[in-house]
Amino acid sequence: MSSSNPTYRLLIALVLAVVLMVLDQRTPWAQPIRYVFGYLTAPAQYLAHLPVDTARFVSRQTQSRAELLEDQERLNRQVLILEQRVQKLAVLEAENTRLRELLNSSASLEGSVLVAEIIGLDPDPNRQEIVINKGAREGVRRGQGVLEAQGLIGQVVEVGPLASRVLLITDASHAMSVQVNRNGVRAILAGTGQGNTLRLLYVPDTADVQQGDLLVSTGLGQLYPRGYPVAEVVSVDHRSGAAFADILARPKAQIDRASHVLLVESKPVEPAPADQDEQGDAPPDGAEEEGQ
Amino acid sequence: MSKEKPAGTGVILVTLFLAGLLEVVPLPEDLNWLRPDWLLLVLMYWVLALPHRVGVLWGFVVGLYHDVLVGTTLGQWALAYSLGAYFMLAAYKRMRVFPALQQTAVVFLLVGSSNLLAYLVQESVGRAYYPPYTILYSTLASAVLWRPIVAALRWVQLRFLVR
């Protein structure tokens, strides 16, 4: 071993690395290696998050009684408002199910939900990813949708034993199918690589999309659950001569401020074969691509 | 030196673990550009100090660790670190007699070339968003930190008798 030439070892390492890269890009066979290394990387990620945790713990311990009372009052008010909304929701949900039954399609609303804490951000500015503190042990699966209180933020792309990695909707390699909540116009929402900007792709110049429109997930790529708010249109730029309008949107979720996220079951409970959309004005290039 | 029994593998692993920790510690967005390549710097120190023990294969495994830590394509940093360790192995005799400034310049080139290789891989899988000159910032930060890291790790090496 000690007599062997480092140049040979370099060659072996280079070949191995290239083989690994190809395996990782094209096949799922490299996943076990990631999984095993995950036992070693997770402690570093947890430790790196420790100062944040400690600061939060200290501030909680030193909160005054008056602050706590105020907090409680505010939360009570919020609960009241939310309960009132839920009451309406129950009626709507029942009605929705009934109507769907009439249409012979199955509803897929509820799924199991898991709460996770964000323990890390990707150090590489080229990538918009976060690390959460739940892994395969807690039942996290690849492809699960990730939500924050205000809206969708991304999907699980890598599951380790103790932590998982979430690709954010703002990553330049991410695209998902959305529709305008107001009128059901569908389009592809792609990340730009910048933290707060998304772009609607291939929207015809004549499509009815306005500033302030809410974009919700359609569930068409089978990755994200249907009907969660994703983004809000901030600018619509009609350029003469261009085939498509230039539409920018901002994520509804406050990704840079969130500390906890929800993991939702992304696969529909049952496929809905007879589910037809009444809106006929889908974009011509509306191929639903989702994921990386 | 090579006649002595090797010792202190655990200490090397602990320093590498701490370097990995610094690699993912959250930084303000603007400072993130200046995040030095801690793992590579620590790896290069150990290659420089113990070239008969720490070499290309160490580089490969540490690179894989970096890959999983930051979620890049498996093999991206393994490739870069193997090459970094190889260059250091080729240059360690000269590095030991170089004055501080010259050492810093060589480290700048070594870190730069291995980071450029990693960038090429990232670019080829379509995950590079910012132009390539942006890796210059972190490479500069790495070069500036080389001498302090050498001082700290030399102390560790003598204190815990790593050989």
**End-to-end separation of chain A:** 42 Å
Label the CATH architecture of chain B. Answer: Orthogonal Bundle
Number of alpha- plus pi-helical segments of chain B: 6
Structural class of chain A: alpha+beta
Please sum up the structure shown.
Chain A is α+β, with helices and mostly antiparallel strands. Helices cover 31% and strands 24% of the residues of chain A.
Task: Please describe the topology of this protein.
The complex is a heterodimer of chains A (292) and B (163).
Chain A lengths: L5 H21 L4 H31 L3 H38 L10 E9 L7 E4 L12 E4 L2 E9 L4 E5 L6 E6 L5 E6 L6 E4 L12 E4 L11 E9 L8 E6 L8 E5 L28
Antiparallel strand pairs in A: 1-2, 1-12, 2-5, 3-4, 3-12, 4-5, 6-7, 6-9, 7-8, 8-11, 9-10, 10-11
Chain B lengths: L8 H16 L13 H12 L6 H15 L5 H22 L2 H25 L10 H25 L4
Description of the molecule:
The complex is a heterodimer of chains A (292) and B (163). Helices cover 31% and strands 24% of the residues of chain A. Chain A is globular. The C terminus of chain A is likely disordered. In chain B, helix 1 packs antiparallel against helix 2, helix 2 packs across helix 6 and helix 4 runs antiparallel to helix 5. The longest helix of chain B is centred in the C-terminal third of the chain and has 25 residues. Chain B has 163 residues and is an all-alpha fold. Chains A and B meet through helix 1 and helix 2 of A and helix 1, helix 3 and helix 4 of B.
Relevant terms:
heterodimer; A: 292 residues; alpha+beta; Thrombin, subunit H; 3 domains; six-stranded antiparallel β-barrel; six-stranded antiparallel barrel; 3 helices; 24% strand; globular; disordered C terminus; B: 163 residues; mainly alpha; Arp2/3 complex 21 kDa subunit ARPC3; 6 helices; 71% helix; 0% strand; MreD_proteobac (chain B)
